[in-house]
Specification:
17 strands, 3-stranded antiparallel beta sheet, 16 helices, 364 residues, Arc Repressor Mutant, subunit A, 9-stranded mixed beta sheet, alpha/beta, S-adenosyl-L-methionine, TIM Barrel, Heme chaperone HemW
């Protein structure tokens, strides 16, 4: 699977919980950025015909119609045989003309940053769209024939209740959403809510909400396939590349690539990027780095890690090398082995970070 990630850093406004690499939208900056993006593609001699392309941000839909056309035209030679072509959009910046442009260039999957369908909560986290705008843009996408729609939701928001989440999930069902990503609110340093000393859910409360959400989604036909992701028809092919720890290309400010045992990280400086100084770091990964990252990403999946595959890839006896950690968490009913896969149980998903720390310690 050949996959490409494209980062568009621009946003019309900054949300109170956001820690992603983003820049306030200005037309001139965006034009310069697109020129620099074209330079990076040519400078890296990127010419692969990708199976998946994912345009993320920031808010890619904050670009004007003309700028989106420029971006899609730039990527057109790379997308001739693309199977899954995704873009992130926000409800307030989606319109009929932009959807028609997506269809023209073969974009067949849209991920919408809804976060919640409750207007009072949207205001508290600095979102600029309303619940009605989110509903209308989803209906517009369906009407135009785009059925592969992901919605992002967040739980643990200030003053949010379990009933609020239940109502959000009911709407997801009514709107015939095919894929859902739902995350617990985690506040990084320098976000607005962090500076306001908002306290997210503690571990016990988070585990309760998570279990409740899983049950509700199961009742309406969603398959849980990764810690925070659920699908009805099919999982995200692009994100599975990350979780299966396969190579991929990334372009744009702050984008990462995984290529031939190297992790490449682009600059997060817009000034440097538009001056064509895009590469920040090129790290040669050790065998130990790759093994741990394979474990870390694989255990995020409900299916878990294929033991035969990891043995072959790293020439190890996986169960023997990590016997201490595996047996510890099997005894605690947090890990299990089934059909030659090691995976977390429903309980173990709540303690994944703790489990991974023990896997890391087992390597040392």
């Amino acid at each position: 699977m050949k996959s490409l990630y494209v980062h568009v850093p621009f946003c019309d406004h900054i949300c109170s919980y956001c820690d992603f690499c983003k820049v306030f939208y200005k037309e001139d900056w965006a034009n310069q950025y697109l020129e620099a993006l074209s330079y990076e593609i040519k400078d890296k001699s990127i010419h692969d015909d990708y199976d998946t392309i994912y345009i993320g941000g920031g808010t890619p839909s904050s670009l004007s119609l003309k700028q989106l056309d420029t971006l899609f035209k730039m990527l057109e030679p790379l997308s001739i045989q693309v199977k899954e072509y995704s873009i992130e959009m926000n409800p307030e910046s989606i319109n009929e003309d932009k959807i028609d442009l997506l269809i023209k260039y073969g974009i067949n999957r849209v991920s919408i940053g809804v976060q919640t369908f409750h207007n009072s909560l949207l205001e508290k986290i600095g979102r600029y769209h309303t619940s009605q705008q989110a509903i209308e843009c989803i209906k517009m996408l369906h009407a135009k024939g785009i059925e592969d729609i992901n919605v992002d939701l967040i739980y643990g928001l200030p003053s949010q209740t379990i009933q609020d989440i239940d109502e959000d999930i009911a709407l997801i069902n009514d709107l015939q959403i095919s894929h859902l990503s739902i995350y617990s609110l985690i506040l990084e340093e320098h976000t607005i809510l962090k500076n306001q000393d908002y306290q997210p859910l503690d571990d016990e409360a988070d585990a309760y909400w998570y279990e409740h959400i899983n049950q509700k989604l199961k009742e309406i036909g969603f398959m849980h396939y990764e810690v925070s992701n659920y699908y009805r028809q099919k999982p995200s092919l692009h994100n599975l590349v990350y979780w299966h720890y396969q190579d991929y290309d990334g372009i744009g400010i702050s984008a990462h690539s995984l290529k031939n045992h190297h992790r490449l990280e682009n600059t997060n400086s817009l000034t440097q990027y538009i001056n064509h100084h895009y590469l920040k770091e090129d790290v040669l990964l050790s065998r130990e780095d790759e093994l741990f990252e394979k474990i870390m990403m694989g255990l995020r999946l409900v299916d878990g890690i294929c033991i035969d595959e990891i043995n072959q890839q790293f020439d190890i006896d996986f169960l023997k090398q990590y016997q201490h950690t595996i047996e510890k968490y099997r005894t605690l009913k947090m890990l299990e082995i089934k059909n030659h896969y090691l995976r977390t149980t429903a309980l173990g998903m709540n303690y994944l970070n703790t489990i991974l720390v023990d896997f890391l310690d087992d390597e040392i």
